[in-house]
Fold:
Amino acid sequence: MSDFRDLRISVIGAGMGGLACALAFAKKGFKHVDVYETASNLGFVGAGIQLAPNMVRLLDRWGCWDSIGAEATNITSSSIREGSTNRELVHVEMPDIAEKYGYPHCTGHRASLAGGLYEGCKKEPAVTFHFSSSLVGITSFGPDKTVFTVQPRNGDAYEVETDVLLGADGIKSAVRTSLLRALDIPADVEDTGQAAYRIMLNRSQMEHDPELLELLDADCALRWIGAKRHIVAYPISNKTIYNISTCQPDVNFAAAPGATYTTRGSKPAMLQVYADFGPTVQKMLNMVPEGEVCEWRLRSHAPLATWVLGAVALVGDACHPTLPHLSQGAAMAIEDAAVLAEVVSRAPGGGSDRAALSKAVKVYELLRKDRTTLLVDLAASSARTLHLGEGKAKEERDRAFLNAKKRGTPIPDKWASPEVQHMIYSYDCVKDTDEKFDELYASLADGAAEKGFMNGDTNGNVATNGHASGNATDVAAEVAAEVAA
Structure:
């Protein structure tokens, strides 16, 4: 029997999912992990990110949580407010998250999270980074062998033969394009109709205003909601930065040519979008320097019939991009990485049986697809609820917020709702893999992994992911069932 540790693992992309893949496989004992990244280096940028217990659990196991957590804010409450009046709809106390789930819910800087993962990778002799190197295409998906072509920025293209290829290259994934083309499946990226401003105010900007300084020094995540838009804010970086993320209708990108994802925004335009929000919001938005307004397009793609073909698998945003309203995008990618390392290590024959290796990779999809689809649906459903305009539905939502002041009661904002938190935070993806791998592996018909579909479904039938169509009732039922289980 071959030793799974000798398998060659190739990762495309060094974002959160790619770094997590490299670290997960190295920590599992794999000796040959190569990461190919288009950028010339990993100069980490970005804004704030929420670090939920299900993510922190994995970071701690991999030995990189301490450095990330040292800069993070332990969030112990959430305040949801009406944007136009600053009236608090509900205040959710969350002092016992760590007690319930073993780890806290924190907020931090994306650079801290990515940097912590990268530093973890650099300590592993098994991990090699190939910067300034882009995927050209995949010429063989297995099961006999997996072959892809790499183009260095200043060199000749070359072929790489590997055992497992992981596409962690984001919403614009070249791996996804190659995989779906091989299956003759459309690979269209689609708009969500939403865009976001991401703003970071530093302590020196806020410390002269007692109201704003109180927000910065609190262990509270705030959300101001209004018709078709909302703002999320919380402290990061040892409370030296106040992170503000918005969500509003996509106007600038919708009117722009091409498929750009970011644009230099107009400060007057930003202020106009939130002109009816209260004085606290106005003060913060006005602090943004002229010329430093940047808007991001929130994009997705149609639900995929499969994430796997042979020994090639998609990870994170490449296969299940989500709106940010549950703060689980990075967490899901990191969980994907952990599950992939587990299933590949369990391939019968240590990976020497190529068909068995492909089936083991397919188990990853079986373990992850339903759960990630549920969370993507919940994020979209929560946005629709938060963005209600005047009318009966909004009145009912606000009554639900009022009723939710009784601790433990469901909350319309899914991120803050206790039953949703329990479903997400208590989940241990490694334990789930350990319990279900053998059964799921046995359920795969011979040849299913090579075809890319599970249990013989070669029609690629999948449920909608909830971005465009509202299936909140079905989602709520699934959550209730999951919690009960």
Q: What stands out?
A: The CA atoms of residues 330 and 396 lie 32 Å apart. The chain has two domains: 4-188+301-446+467-484, 190-300.
